[in-house]
Automatic annotation (TrEMBL):
Its EC number is 2.7.13.3. It catalyses: ATP + protein L-histidine = ADP + protein N-phospho-L-histidine. Residues 82-134 form the PAC domain. Keywords: ATP-binding, Kinase, Nucleotide-binding, Phosphoprotein, Sporulation, Transferase, Two-component regulatory system. GO terms for molecular function: ATP binding; phosphorelay sensor kinase activity. It comes from Niallia alba. One of its GO terms (biological process) is sporulation resulting in formation of a cellular spore. Pfam families: HATPase_c (PF02518), HisKA (PF00512), PAS_9 (PF13426). SMART domains: HATPase_c, HisKA, PAC, PAS. This is histidine kinase. Residues 264-468 form the Histidine kinase domain. It comes from the Bacteria. PROSITE patterns: HIS_KIN, PAC, PAS.
Length: 468
């Protein structure tokens, strides 16, 4: 089509001239043939000034490479139209962000005649976007933008959140890959709802980090229309500590209920239990009845007494007698107490003190109870014998660290995560209260208990405050 045809096509000319969208007709080599008033207004040039220029002249040089590539694809027939955000140059030499829609007009023979380029000024929108991105980049909460279920953006907090060093490690990856396998079906339902235009508030999810660890998160997701469909903007908060606190409170509540029940029935149960046990022992001595039956009954009565005793330890505050004492002397006494049992199991208990400061304020008997319990566990973990190490370190100026290390087969992960639950035990005669009692004792000493385990053994870490 020649230029005079453009001038005399009355319908085209009317629509072209009065369109609110800036429009240009450009030949295949990029020369501007015709522009409408809206485009002149956007760029600040007169129509005659623009007709003397090329598309390259009015496009930022760093943006033109990508624009030129799409135009080449249009001319080769690989695509029929394209939309791109790019910067055009105003007459007064400043950049204008624009949305360009480019389509190709061909002759009847299929040869390219000219390009029709429609231009919308989106500078204000880009400024808003820039302010928004500056805001979310500095946000203290993790923020992710997802399009077609692939991650398009993540802020700095999000990188730390997922233990990622560079954004390139996650950009372009499917968000589904980062969701716990057990939660993916539910998560896909949430994604469908957001893509349909719904906002999802404060949903708990399990998200995977790149190091393979899973964390509990609370997320809010809302749709943002991008001109074609809804992208998904996600705000995430790490609630792992909150979940731990909830679990701790739940365990505490279990213990509280158990303690109240134990305290309420202790006198009612213990008095008849003492009578039953006494008569059983008398009958056993006088050989009345089967010896095997007596052994079974006495064993079960002893177990009931043990459970009641441990429940009562948890049901009421203990009358602790704190005094300043050298931790090394407590450890030596415990080793002495446990030495006979250790020798019977071909176990050697080795002490290693790596600090000259071991004075702590404590209830000596309660700490002995803790050490004895853990050493007994270590002995039971090594049926073939071996060493148990008790190592004491000065952790910092305010605390001391005691490690009790065995070389047993370790505690499986699924058991380790339940080890603090009351009444959970893997021992045939265990009550499932020993770990809770030890933890309570250490916490009452303003300390902290840690456990790590592998197939090569288990390490109990006890942190206690120092007396300075």
């Amino acid at each position: 089509m020649q230029e005079n045809e453009l001038k005399h096509g009355s319908i085209f000319t009317h629509a072209f001239n009065f369109s609110m969208i800036g429009t240009a007709v450009v030949d295949p080599i990029g020369r501007i043939l015709k522009v409408n008033p809206s485009l002149s207004h956007i760029l600040g040039f007169t129509e005659n000034e623009l007709i003397s220029l090329t598309l390259r002249d009015i496009t930022f040089s760093e943006d033109f490479v990508k624009l030129d590539d799409y135009i080449s694809q249009l001319l080769l027939g690989k695509i029929s139209s394209h939309q791109i955000e790019t910067r055009l140059l105003h007459k007064h030499n400043y950049g204008i962000w624009t949305l360009l829609r480019i389509s190709l007009v061909q002759s009847n023979e299929g040869n390219p005649l000219y390009l029709i380029i429609q231009v919308q000024n989106i500078t204000e929108r880009k400024k808003v976007e820039e302010r928004y991105f500056n805001f979310i980049e500095r946000s203290s909460e993790a923020m992710i933008i997802i399009s077609n279920r692939k991650i398009q953006y993540i802020n700095e907090t999000g990188l730390k959140f997922l233990n990622i060093s560079e954004k390139e490690e996650i950009i372009g990856k499917s968000v589904i890959d980062f969701i716990h396998p057990d939660k993916r079906n539910i998560s896909v339902n949430y994604i469908n709802r957001v893509e349909a235009g719904e906002t999802i508030y404060r949903i708990e999810e399990i998200f995977g980090r790149v190091d393979g660890k899973f964390i509990n998160v609370e997320f809010t997701a809302f749709p943002v229309y991008n001109g074609e469909k809804n992208d998904m903007h996600v705000i995430m908060k790490d609630i792992s500590e909150k979940k731990k606190t909830e679990q701790f409170l739940l365990n505490s509540e279990k213990l509280n209920v158990a303690g109240q029940l134990a305290a309420g029935i202790a006198h009612e149960v213990r008095n008849p239990l003492t009578a039953i046990k006494g008569f059983l022992q008398i009958m056993d001595r006088e050989s009345i009845g089967s010896k095997m039956y007596f052994d079974v009954l006495l064993s079960e009565v002893n177990r009931i007494e043990l459970v009641l005793t441990e429940l009562l330890l948890l049901s009421k505050p203990q009358n602790t007698k704190h005094k300043f004492i050298n931790l090394e002397s407590i450890i030596e006494q415990v080793i002495s107490l446990m030495s006979t049992q250790a020798i019977l199991h071909n176990i050697e208990i080795k002490k290693e003190i790596n600090t000259d400061t071991c004075m702590i304020s404590c209830d000596e008997n309660q700490l002995k109870q803790v050490f004895i319990n853990f050493i007994k566990n270590s002995i039971e973990a090594m049926p073939n014998g071996g060493p148990i190490y008790i190592k004491v370190f000065k952790r910092d100026n305010d605390s001391i660290l005691i490690h009790i290390i065995d070389r047993g087969s370790g505690i499986p992960a699924e058991i380790l995560k339940r080890i603090w639950e009351p009444f959970f035990t893997t021992k045939e005669k265990g009550t499932g209260l020993g770990m809770m009692i030890c933890n309570n004792i250490i916490e009452n000493h303003n300390g902290k208990l840690q456990i790590s385990s592998s197939p090569n053994g288990t390490t109990i870490g006890i942190i206690l405050p120092l007396n300075k």
